[in-house]
Amino acid sequence: MSESTAEERAASEVFGSRVARREDVPLLTGTGEYTDDVRLAGELHLAIRRSDHAHARLVNVDTSAAEAHEGVVAVFTGDDVAETGIPNSIPTAWSLPGLVTPQYRILAVDKVRHLGDGIAAVVAESREAAHDAAALVEVEYDPLDAVVDPVAAVSGDYPSVHEEAEDNVAFDFTLGDDALVDEAFASASHTVSVDLRQQRVIPNAMEPRAALADFDPHTEDLRIWMTSQNPHLHRMLLAGTSLGLPENKIQVIAPEVGGGFGSKIYHYPDEAVTAWCSMQLGSPVRWQATRSEGYLTDCHGRDHTTTAEMALDAEGSVLGMRVETHAGLGAHLSQFATATPSYLYATILSGQYAIPAIHCRVVGAFTNTTPVDAYRGAGRAEGNYVVERLMDVAAAELGVDAADLRRRNLVPADAFPYETCVAVVYDSGDYERAMDHALDLVGYDDLRERQAELRDEGRYLGIGVANFVESAGLSPSKAAGQLGAVAGGWESSIVRFDMSGTVTVLAGTADQGQGHRTTYAQIVARELGVPLDSVEVVEGDTDQIPQGMGTYGSRSAPVGGGSIALAARDVREKARTLAAHKLEASEDDLEFENGTFSVTGAPDRSIHIQEVAHEAYLGFDLPEGMDPGLEATHFYDPENFTFPFGTHVCVVEVDAETGEVAVERYVAVDDCGEVINPMIVEGQVHGGVAQGIGVALYEEGAYDDDGRLRTRRMDEYAVPAATMLPDFETDATVTPSPHNPLGVKGVGESATIGATPATVAAVCDALAPFGVTHLDMPLTPEKLWTAMREGEVS
Ligand code: MCN
User: Fold this and answer.
1) Residue 185 domain flag
2) Rounded CA gap, 758 and 779, in Å?
3) What is the residue with the minimal CA distance to atom 43 of ligand 1?
4) How many CB atoms lie within 10 A of CB 395?
5) What residue numbers bound the domain in which 106 lies?
6) Is this prediction's pTM over 0.90?
7) For 694-745, what is each residue's pLDDT tens digit?
8) 369 close to ligand 1 (CB < 6 Angstrom)
């Protein structure tokens, strides 16, 4: 909590303080405005009739009964959409060599490829009428065999999901030096191998996806409110690839967005269909996903099947790693479906360790399932999981302590910037310091003693240590472009003084719960020395904010925050010139502290930046050649990712009778460089740990062999409740990023990345007496009970 009100404190102290989140009052009192709260006169409601089969040819779609239903205004099919000649394509945003990119239409024609494929759009005067009529659309199918598993999909035993990819392979990606890895394995004293499943998980934002589209047939302007993590990207994709409208005729507004976790990055068919229906009918059209519809259509995460091997020398130094992964992509390529299991995954496989040789192959497979894309931790979670599981399996097989083996292989603090053998340069780090701190906090040595005592009593305590490193804030644009990205990694912000001295920040990122309105104001308060309360932050409206890339990949603090700081500094420099003019001093003789410019050695000759702003807008007395006004736009394109890191330790007890896991303690030491707001960072860590533990112990998006999603409701998909989690013990070390203007690194995904391997390690450690070295997630009581019954007690 903030100890004093922010405005009473010197502005320079605001950055780094536990300022209370400004956004919480409307969010917690129910007065925030979400897409579903926006009301327009004459709104119609859209329901999308989805497929009854995971894989089938469409023989006939009869809409007559639906059209006759009371209240129905129109029913459209995929053929109706195609006839209007729009581009009709949901694109992928990252190309890879040899990538197969079948057309992903906004409504299906000819064939359905998963249960979420839309077949007809039913627009009615009420939501109920639209849903009732959607059920009346009569669809005749010619069913085909479905495939849900990424390894089976490319085996040749199943029909093609797309004609363009007969073998169901969308891409076959490799990174690293194969020959060097072979040499490492040939010279190794020990080699270990593990087969891993990183199961499909389903994002669970509190607010399901929604859109309200309003097309004006006279001006041909389209305004769309939607649950978006990146309104400008949605504007660009609606314009260029799905609807074919001029970009400057579209306004995308993301009001409050109730969580995203990646799922609201993407341009989905549903929002495009909503807008297209509004264009056909000239009326506002609203679509609101139900929770089950979201489970079927929001991009899922993970879905990796991996064989990973590690080669070590006699002292336990890692010599090399070989990784082969089949990544399920689902039925269609979503925007980052190609980047997530390739560049975001393979480039982080070195983890925190100095590993001289790594080779990774990833086969991206089409399956008859919901498209898979980035989910919190995306790619980096999967990569860290692989190297951390290998560390644990190697430690068990070598008979050494898992923390010791990790320590032996850490990249040393004096080796930064550190170039890995998988094509990235870690900007800064002190891995051992964070690891020592986490082990101290948890009391690692004492815990090991207690573990031994409890084992004698037939109780199974497990201690899991996970080190992780993450790439946060995708950049730089030039390199991303060379690797296949179709958009850059920059961010853009405007910092604007008003005449009365208040400041508005227009940011191209888009909050879904991360607290940008607080932390961005903290940045500006420090840079400009103005009270926190005089700074307003605006996000999420493409008509107010000219350009932006959005919020994902933990980029808002390092990239968005960087652009805000640089824009504020541009403003400060213009203000300095004007202040020097007013004070009749040289700019070089001016000091700037807490918002006041003063002449060195003559503190009574001073002027506050808010007064300077007033003068800038009066325009009566400006230096020669200076234009009126005080604002700046800054596009910031970082020279590298930032690489946050940390060590998490999970302590569990597994009930020998039931297989139930009790998480007893959870210690997280995170390093995200300089911290703008420690309370917000802790909140991010808490949420991330909860999600990471959820993946390890409870969550799985499960299909049956016919491609039917078995987990279609919240009571079928186990999201952890607060009562299932311990109090989290969090702390931080601070290793600033050397290239970021604020020294910050991202934190939004870190804890998700650390928590999953730490929890799995803890459970496997608890079951070590039963000969267990690895079990696949989710670690359900049944799975553990069976492993204990089948295992040999040592
Ligand atoms: N921050 C800070 N100091 C730092 C780093 C970050 O004070 N050194 C603050 C930032 O200013 C911001 C928050 O922490 O208020 C998260 O910043 P950042 O790590 O830049 O992440 P983003 O804001 O870009 O958020 C994206 C990230 C991702 S990728 C997912 S997924 C995720 C997450 O954030 N989804 C979330 N956290 C979430 N939190 C909520 N409540 N809801 C989601 O959907």
Assistant:
1) no
2) 13
3) 259
4) 22
5) 40-144+208-260+264-291
6) yes
7) 999 999 999 999 999 999 999 999 999 999 999 999 999 999 999 999 999 9
8) no
